[in-house]
Amino acid sequence: MGINFHNSQNKARYQVRIEPYSRRFKQPLQTHHGLWRDRQGIWIQLCPMAASEAGECGWGEIAPLPEFGSENLTEALHFCQSLRGEISPEEINSIPDDLPACQFGFESALMDLHPLENPPHLMNICGLLPTGKAALDPKLPIWNQGYATLKWKIAVTEISQELALFQDLLWMLPEGVKLRLDANGGLTEAEAHQWLQACEHQPVEFLEQPLGRSEFEAMLALSHEYETPLALDESIATWQQFLQVYHRGWPSIMVIKPAIFGFPSRLIEFCHAHPVDIVLSSVFETAIARKMLFRLATTLPNLDRALGLGTDRWFEDGGMGEWGNGGMGEWGDTGRWRRGDAGTRGHGEMETRGRGDAGTRGDGDAKK
To answer: Which GO terms describe its molecular function (predicted)?
Structure first.
């Protein structure tokens, strides 16, 4: 169940407007899961049907990532079209758990009708480096944008080559900057040991998802063996997976992708009741979903780590046409987020590699 807003107890209904989008990456993003070329999703607008509330609309976004366990774009579109143009808060609260991106999008739009009382404050953002040798280009704008934390994706090519590039990358890191390494579940256990040994006494904040989702016990053992913390990502992509891992005693960091995690209210309630070390992370959504992510960042307690939202520069366009008028402003692609900043991001067409246990459900856009 989602949040029980004040107006969810009455007969409130909302007109639903949807707009599918497809946004091209400036250059394909290579990860262990494959090559990402564009980002597809759905923008949502909820407008009260009651005359007394006319003119007040809320904005949300459905940004599926089936490779991580969410519904695919076709399933999300089918759900939106089944609404026949209107929905109630009770119906939003009843969106099933096998549609987590829809849960997020519709509850975000409902929450957007209830502005925050306190404005967001300055927050640290983690920037995303290109994979492989491209990260070593000193002319990349990301090196001069004030990031205190940078992420580099690994398990993309042969490990000896990546470990050599890692040493070069460490040499390039400005003083005081931390590095996050993200394997997307693409390492073997032996390779994970190699990486963790290479990370010892280096400015590495954590190694993210070294092994596949089915290898929880092995990652738990690794988390106790090395000083460099491990973080789970693919293993906790959905609400149900998150609960399972939490109750199995994961002792370290958990990377949450709110746009595919389900109802935002559920995450807020859990984090206020349980001490957890989490990082909020992007699924390359647009500014509409990012607005909700920053709202979450101001609402969740003890959120001390840099937000994994430094993905602006990966897209060709910064605007969203008439859908850009939902109060987002402009997110600057810098290491600090300021109220009034905005941005855009994506995922859609993926050319998948063979290794790993991504468990894709597919939306017709994957090239095997």
So the answer is: O-succinylbenzoate synthase activity
Whole-Å CA distances, 112 to 286, 301, 307, 348, 356: 15, 20, 21, 25, 37
Strands 230-232, 204-208: parallel, antiparallel or unpaired by DSSP? parallel
Measured torsion, CA atoms of residues 318, 322, 327, 332, in degrees rounded to the nearest 10: 10
pLDDT higher than 60, residue 319: no
Query: How many other CB atoms are found less than 10 A from the CB of residue 27?
Result: 12
**Strand runs (DSSP E) across 183-306, as ranges?**
204-208, 230-232, 253-256, 278-280
Strand partners, 207: 181, 230
Mean pLDDT of 282-288: 90
Rounded Cα distance between 69 and 360, Å, is 7
Place of tokens 């290579």: 30
**DSSP state string for 31-83:** ETTEEEEEEEEEEEEEEE-SGGGTT--EEEEE---GGGTS--HHHHHHHHHHT
Q: Which domains does the chain have, with CATH numbers?
A: 1-368 (3.20.20.120)
Cα–Cα distance, 160 to 198 (Å, whole number): 11
Catalytic residue among 26, 133, 151, 257: 257
Distance CA 33, CA 366 (A): 11
Catalytic residue among 153, 178, 367, 368: 153
Per the annotation, the verdict on 178 as an active-site residue is no
How large is the average pLDDT for residues 311-326? 55
If you write DSSP's letter for every residue of 143-190 in order, what string do you get?
Answer: GGS--SEEEEE-SSS-HHHHHHHHHHHHHHSPTT-EEEEE-TT---HH
3-state secondary structure of 98: coil
Known binding-site positions? 182, 208, 233
Q: Which of 82, 37, 100 is nearest to 238 (CA)?
A: 100
Binding residues for Mg(2+): 182, 208, 233
Active site residue 257: yes
Instruction: Report pTM.
Output: 0.82
